[in-house]
Amino acid sequence: MTPRIAAWTLAAMILLAARPAAACPTCKEALSAQPTDASRLADGFNKSILLMLAVPIGLASIGGFAVHRAVKRGLLPEF
Length: 79
Fold this sequence. Notes:
By secondary structure, the protein is mostly helical. The protein has helices spanning 3-17, 25-33, 38-73. It has one domain.
């Protein structure tokens, strides 16, 4: 078996064996205790996750743009 086929087989086995994630007990109780506020709580979780994803991606993009601009202006050597 080639290493490439072994890697794909291992990745498929890991993905197929994964179970769905369960929420922590506190979150489960908060959702069941206040069904009217469950929608607002879910929206808050979604927005916080998007923020946690957007900040590192934004910082990496700004850093990449700054390096690209510095190379074009001749301030950094090209590799």
